[in-house]
Every structure is written in C-alpha cells, then in structure tokens.
C-alpha cells in the first residue's frame, strides 16, 4: 500500500523544512509546537509492519490536534522511513534527537532497530516509545515498551496449542534477537507444560526458500510447529508449507503471524486453523474498538489495511504518551516519566493499557485466536496481563538509573533458561 500524495506531504514537508534550515525553523517550531518523531519502516522487507503503524500514528496525532492538542499546543509530527536499514535508523535517531529536538520518538520494529537507537535517545535525554511486541527484557528509565511480551502472550499460546494438538513441538524462528529469545521462551513453556522440543531452526530475514526445513518437519513428525518468523520474505514459509500439504497434517501456532497482516497475503486455505495470541485483533467485539476500526477505515478508505497489534499499539502508544504529558503539564523528560509512572492508563481499542512503573512496560489484555477465512475468531481473553518476564529482571523504582537489555544474550544470561 502506498501513502497517497496528501498524506505524504503532511508527514514529510515539516521534515524537509527542518533539514533545510534547522536553526531558524527548529527554534520556531520548538516554541509553538510539541515535537513528535516517528521512525518506522515504510519500505524494504519490514514495510508490512511499518506502514500500518505509520497510518495509526498519523491518525492519533490528527485526532489529538483536532481536540485542541497538548498544553495548548499542536503536535508537530515528522515521519522518517529507515527503509528496513539499521544504518538509516541510527541516522534518523540522531536527526530526531539532536536536530529536531523531539519531545518524544515512537520508533523501531525489530529488536535490532530498537537497540541500535535506544542509546542515542538516552544520550540526548529524549523520551522513547517502542510500540512493538517483542521478547522482553529492556529496562530503561527513558524508554517505554508498550507491545506485548512472551509472558503475556506466548505463555498463554503454548499450553493452549499443546493441549489441543500434542506435546511434540518444532520451532522455526527469525535469526536475530527476537527469534532467538522468543524460541528460548517457547522451549521453556513447552518444558513447563510437559512437552518436548523436537528441533529449533533459525532463518535470516531475507530467506524465502524453506523446502529443506519442511522436509525435516515431515521427517520429525512433531504434533505442531511454533513459528516466530518475521518479515515479508518469511511469508513464503506458510505458502510452501501449505503447498506441501503440511497444514492439513501438522498445524501451526505463531508468535508473529498476522502482525504484518500476513494472513491477508496468503489464501484462506493456506492459513486456516493457525492459532495466535496478541494484545489486539481487529475482531475485538467492543464498542470502543468498533468505533476505532470504523474511523480508521473511513479515514483511509480502500487503502485501509487490517489493523494488527503493532498498528493499534502505535495509536494507543501515542495516546498513552499524551496522557503523560497532560498529567505532567510539561514535555520535560523527568516530569513526563514521573507522570507516566503514577501510573498513567488509557482505555483504547485493545482495552485498558496501563504503564507498569517498575519496567516501563504495559499491563494489557491478551486475546488468543484461530484464523479462519482470513479473519481471527477470538477463543480466549485474558484481562490485564503483567509483563512478568521483564519484572523478573527489572525494577526501575528501586534502581531508576538503568539502561539495559537483560535478555540480549538469551535467557540463560538472566538466569531464566
């Protein structure tokens, strides 16, 4: 999906002006507006995640501005496209913090991108929101991780599918932090529920040929496959798996399928029966969510994508930050952190979202669902789940001056595996 010309101009014209004359324009904007920057992939292999996130971020800011803005000021949103390239992430993070002097940055999809830019925001004392589901373990006073973590979703998903399908599990995952650490969590939950991990395989993000792995799965004969694959290239796994007739004999559960709207890219027959767990699904049957979906579809019309957790959480993350600013009565970093940690909450399309002050993660609802006909049927709802994995290692109330990723070297390093 391409951004139309009007939205492109809205979200890039301010950036062009600041880059052309950062001294004059930057000072004027700082006096008259509150600066928010979004750094999300709108091209490259991760654009299947980034584009809907940008759409909902723009929508949230437009709504807040239409309602009077924050502290009597309008929010000036700039969006950068790092093109699924870590080098561009670091470049735009420096631009956002040093030149744009952003009051807040909402950025990052992969854990690699988050870790590439988090230190920059700490160095420049810039508030950072990471609105993507991830593997847990970030403990950073100026960073808020609003996406779901394994203790909130995977811990529900694994026992459910093992009870439904069996105890022998084959794991396929992306070959970077998220895939490796999430595979560790899957293995832990499989063991905790009396199961057996048959094998684990990791794949670089650009791999799109899974023939050898599918043959290995056929030979291993697990009861189910657990997928933590990521990105546009990995969609090929599900197509090739179905083409081999495997989806009718060995079912798939996934920690990631659908957060890039992959279920709309493959056929219904290829995806039917897959089970997932997320903190948001477009099918949530509440008045708040129905209103949100209706407004989103009315705004973007034929271009409107399915709204997934990443997109909904980008919208809710913007509002959660706005609530913090309103409560603080300021955009000062320390004041907003203190306000957010009271804690601040926001009742959005996914339900109640509340800051957990020890970890700067979110207490949130979780929905377990089965894919049928390219739509999710919600099977179970779990209210107000704590980020229990990150609570095992992080306490910013007792030790506020932390900036650490505890699970960077796996769960074993944190004494969990």
Description:
Helix 3 runs parallel beside helix 12 and helix 6 (154-165) crosses helix 7. The two termini are 41 Å apart. The protein has helices at residues 5-20, 22-32, 47-66, 86-99, 111-123, 154-165, 177-192, 211-220, 235-243, 268-271, 287-300, 309-328, 333-340, 388-391; strands at residues 33-39, 74-80, 104-107, 127-130, 138-140, 143-145, 168-174, 196-203, 224-228, 252-254, 275-278, 345-348, 351-356, 361-372, 375-385, 403-405. By secondary structure, it is α/β, with parallel strands linked by helices. The protein folds into 2 domains: 5-149 and 283-365 and 384-405, 3-Layer(aba) Sandwich (Rossmann fold), CATH 3.40.50; 154-254, Rossmann fold (3-Layer(aba) Sandwich), CATH 3.40.50.2300. A hairpin with a 2-residue loop joins strand 12 and strand 13. Strands 7, 8, 9, 10, 11, 12, 13, 14 and 15 form a 9-stranded mixed β-sheet that branches. The protein has a 5-stranded parallel β-sheet with strand order 2-1-3-4-6, with helices on both faces.
